[in-house]
Amino acid sequence: MSLTAIELCAGGGGQALGLEMAGFHHVAAVEYEPHYCTTLRTNRPHWKVVEDDIRSFRAQDYSDIDLIAGGVPCPPFSIAGKQLGGDDERDMFPSALKIIEEIRPRAVLLENVPGLASAKFENYRRALMR
After folding, report:
1. Active site residue: 6, 50, 69, 74, which one?
2. What is the pLDDT of residue 1?
């Protein structure tokens, strides 16, 4: 039996490939950028690549998922950037958490930058966890 996964903000598929090598079957790889979707489809034609923004991803179409993984955009929280957090239009954390809440997977793996853990974003993290 293989474990199932949905990859959010899949990019070129590096993390998803590692998960596949670890035994996960990708039910969907969700990516907004067309060039990345082309890369995913070329390198993994057996994956269902969903070319969509996670803010409009239909989570209700998926159930009984073992893992939701992804690399949501990090510039809103990077120490090298403007650190706009929730005020940055690229902040996808609320959408990722909404998908997680709707699907209720057995596990979650979201990678991001250390800046998200900084004191500056403490109130933001609390609001997300409600």
Report:
1. 74
2. 66
